[in-house]
């Protein structure tokens, strides 16, 4: 390895976890010294409770919600599970159909799979080659038995941004028709279906106002926005009933037992306050520059996911035929380039990406997928360096072996 490549680190796995911001870390450290239990009836407990509720209000304002609509969890995965299992646990089995997509995060797909095994009806929406859902398919599948529709805001692997507002409008229109029918029958009940949005990848870049989005439930977390790990949020619209499954305490409005993770909650609020929407155009330019150059350097690669405005600005997902992701990642590591291959929650799986299979990626491209997710620290010089190293790595590996 050339000495010019030594001691240089380029972190391109921000979709898995972002580095914690120094100002956030400072807040986490400060809050860690507040030893009182927020549920305790003493001054130490009241001080801790004040910090929790101050952070809750700040986070609620960020998404245009009420403070009481914010529930803290340990992660985005837990928040997704809480939304899906908690909503489906209530009500009759007849009115309990779930509609989702085949490209959701595993923390959505697995609880849905569990509920299906328990007798719940589950329907999957069609997606096109870019990962965008078929709106007409949704309109044809939504019915009076549908309880929950769960669609990811922006895909964690391929960066495709779903038309959340259009989906919400379809659901709203269906509810209105159902409401008229129920009124004529003299039925008064909370209107379904509910709309859940996994927004973990979108938080840093896209509109998160739940009123604009039309979401009834929305998930996000700290580790994707330069905040602490171990903290997630589930927004639950007022009036929506959810069945808790972590029992044994009255925390979080009785929806999630357990002493609140005060340092992480305070850190999340700080991280949200530091989100800079100017990163969107900056990273978009870097992303598109990479795509333009890499197609000339490695013309046989495949770009996975949508292009242009329908893609997250920091997401690059390409497939290189004839090589495996694992081998390429190990080789890039040698040059200080840290990348990923797909969902970090299934990174150790030997199975090809369920997302790539669902959007119809040919077999020869499935094994060689790379996800390069840019971040606040990514510079034009980093992209130029990547454009030098990646073709070199591919060329060297192809000389040695192919899969």
The gist of it:
With 403 residues, this protein is of the alpha/beta class.
Distance between the termini: 24 Å
Estimate what percentage of residues fall within beta strands.
Answer: 5-15%
Low-confidence stretches: 184-188
Shape: globular
Helix content: 25-40%
List the helices and strands in order.
EHHEHEHEHEHEHEEHHEEHEHHEH
Mean pLDDT over the residues:
93
Fourth CATH level, the homologous superfamily of the largest domain: Type I PLP-dependent aspartate aminotransferase-like (Major domain)
Q: Strands of the largest sheet, in order across it?
A: 2-8-7-6-5-3-4
Q: Nearest-angstrom radius of gyration?
A: 22 Å
Q: What is the helix tally?
A: 13
Q: What is the level 1 CATH name of the largest domain?
A: Alpha Beta
What is the CATH third-level topology name of the largest domain?
Aspartate Aminotransferase, domain 2
Structural class, from helix and strand content? alpha/beta
Total domain units: 2
- CATH architecture label name of the largest domain: 3-Layer(aba) Sandwich
What can be said about the biggest beta sheet? 7 strands, mixed
Total beta-strand segments: 12
Textual characterization of the structure:
This protein folds into two domains: 143 residues, Alpha-Beta Complex (Aspartate Aminotransferase, domain 1); 252 residues, Type I PLP-dependent aspartate aminotransferase-like (Major domain) (Aspartate Aminotransferase, domain 2, 3-Layer(aba) Sandwich). The chain has 13 helices and twelve strands. 40% of the residues lie in helices and 12% in strands. About 1% of the residues have low confidence.
